[in-house]
Amino acid sequence: MAICSRIWNFVIFLLSLYIYLEFAKQHKLVMKEKLFPEPPNNSRDNSSEFRPLKIPPPPFPIRPIFLSAKSQLLEETDHLSHPLDYDFYRHSCPKAERIVRTVVQHLHRVRPDVAPALLRLIFHDCFVQGCDASVLLDPSDEIDSEKESLPNLTLRGFDLIDIIKSKLEEECPGIVSCADVLVLAARDSVALSGGPFYPVYTGRRDSVAAYSNLARDVLPSPHDNISLLLHTFASRGFDEKETVSLFAAHSIGVIRCKFFKDRLYDFNRSQEPDPSMDPELVPLLRTKCHKRRSVSSPESQPCSCDFSTEEEPGILMNHEGSAFGTQYYHSILQGRGILYTDQQLMAAEATGNWVRAYAADAFLFRRDFALTMMKLSDLRVLTAPTGQIRFSCSKVA
Ligand SMILES: *[C@@H]1O[C@H](CO)[C@@H](O)[C@H](O)[C@H]1NC(C)=O
Ligand SMILES: *[C@@H]1O[C@H](CO)[C@@H](O)[C@H](O)[C@H]1NC(C)=O
Ligand SMILES: *[C@@H]1O[C@H](CO)[C@@H](O)[C@H](O)[C@H]1NC(C)=O
Ligand SMILES: *[C@@H]1O[C@H](CO)[C@@H](O)[C@H](O)[C@H]1NC(C)=O
Ligand SMILES: CC(=O)N[C@H]1CO[C@H](CO)[C@@H](O)[C@@H]1O
Predict the structure, then answer these.
(1) How far is the CA of 148 from the centre of ligand 5 (A)?
(2) What is the top EC class of this enzyme, as a single word (predicted)?
(3) Tell me, which fold does domain 85-253+317-378 have in CATH?
(4) Which tens digits make up the pLDDT trace of 347-382?
């Protein structure tokens, strides 16, 4: 018995040593790797784009390898000029970020649509008037809800935000804003679905209004061409590189047939498939998305479609794990982008170059995606004394 147990302990010891050495090796490898690679030599701008990162140390290591690359402290000046604070709730609700993470982790295990839903929510919130949780407001007499405006039809996950918020209210009532909940939850769900982890500032406050008309006007559509797309993203301060990296959000979730069916059957009213789509992909997608439904609801007017999204067929974009992002760019390079806008990334030289760069270099992509998400999360935030802290995210307090 005793010998048996000693052998067993030795095996365990060897195993731990092996794991430790593997980890150390990986760690060293990554540190040696070009952490801040040169831009693709055909990219347009070469000036300030590739400065090393200066971001604060993360509160917890979800992706230690990614984080080890950039644990330098935020520059003092950056910090002072920033409207938000790092770890804003450290005194008022120290468990806030941990609670968000725990709930998101739990939800992620039971519902695979959590990450895509939260990513879409944060994009729709931040892109419209800023990250102020305006997208979460229900319609009422005073609120012309963004939920009602056309692009919101694909939005889900409001219930996820409510669940997280109610947990926070139990711990520290009236302290954590819905805008912060959304940003933190999106950040954690990206990491859980194989994307990079990135630190976010907190201290946002919630809007007292929604902006449904603005939502209709400024949100990009799946039918936008590249010039319109770049114009839309530039209006929110995103350059070509950032625009291309944000599109990696399309590497998870389900894309409904109604958003791309015209490309399979009647592109640009030609009765032909979209010539920019890989001809081998067309029959494959046709088996998922039948023509019949499109006859009764022309694709050029998506708003006349059947809104019952639960029954609406779609394509699962399950490029998760280590392939988050890079696999998506590979698909585009092969003409296998699902949406017209996805494939349009190849229609301009600058964006096409970034697609190539990200397909080839996962590390470059992860860094840029993290930076762009951080930028998105900080768009036009409300801070005290403006805005408010809602008790229920769907209602003005
Ligand atoms: C980029 O650099 C590589 C290696 O230096 C070279 O082979 C390639 O032709 C360059 N591409 C362009 C577009 O300049
Ligand atoms: C890129 O860098 C080179 C050398 O530093 C410089 O001469 C050139 O003007 C830069 N190009 C752009 C677009 O900034
Ligand atoms: C892109 O779309 C816009 C709006 O639909 C249109 O005005 C523009 O001509 C299009 N550009 C190209 C290059 O097709
Ligand atoms: C759509 O068809 C029209 C007329 O045939 C043509 O002028 C236009 O360039 C086409 N647009 C696209 C995006 O192919
Ligand atoms: C489900 C839903 O909210 N649908 C609305 C989406 O937006 C359109 C147009 O703004 C409305 O007509 C729908 O009722």
Answers:
(1) 4
(2) oxidoreductase
(3) Peroxidase; domain 1 (1.10.520)
(4) 999 999 999 999 999 999 999 999 999 999 999 999
Q: Domains of the chain: which residue ranges?
A: 85-253+317-378
In the predicted model, is pLDDT for residue 104 greater than 80? yes
Q: Give the number of the ligand closest to the Cα of residue 42.
A: 1
Question: Is any ligand 5 atom within 6 A of the Cβ of residue 7?
Answer: no
| Ligand 1 midpoint to CA 37 (Å) | 14
| Mean pLDDT (the chain, rounded) | 78
Long-range CB contacts (within 8 A, 24+) of 344-351: 344/224, 344/225, 344/226, 344/229, 345/226, 345/244, 345/247, 346/276, 347/225, 347/226, 347/276, 348/226, 348/227, 348/230, 348/240, 350/43, 350/44, 350/240, 351/226, 351/230, 351/240, 351/243, 351/244
Contact present, 310 and 156 (Cβ < 8 Å): no
**Catalytic positions, please?**
124
As to burial, measured by CB atoms within 10 angstroms (0-12 exposed, 13-18 middle, 19+ buried), residue 10 is: exposed
* Separation of CA 268 and ligand 4 centre (Å): 6
Going by alpha carbons, the residue nearest to atom 10 of ligand 1 is 41
Instruction: Determine if ligand 3 sits within 6 Å of the CB of residue 268.
Output: no
Task: Name the residue at shortest CA distance from atom 14 of ligand 3.
Answer: 225
User: 274 a known binding residue?
Assistant: no
Query: What is the tens place of the pLDDT at every residue in 256-278?
Result: 888 899 999 999 899 999 999 99
130 is in an annotated binding site: yes
Out of 69-73, 144-148, 201-205, which region has the weakest mean confidence (pLDDT)?
69-73
Tokens at 379, concatenated: 């768009």
Instruction: Provide mean pLDDT across the span 245-265.
Output: 90
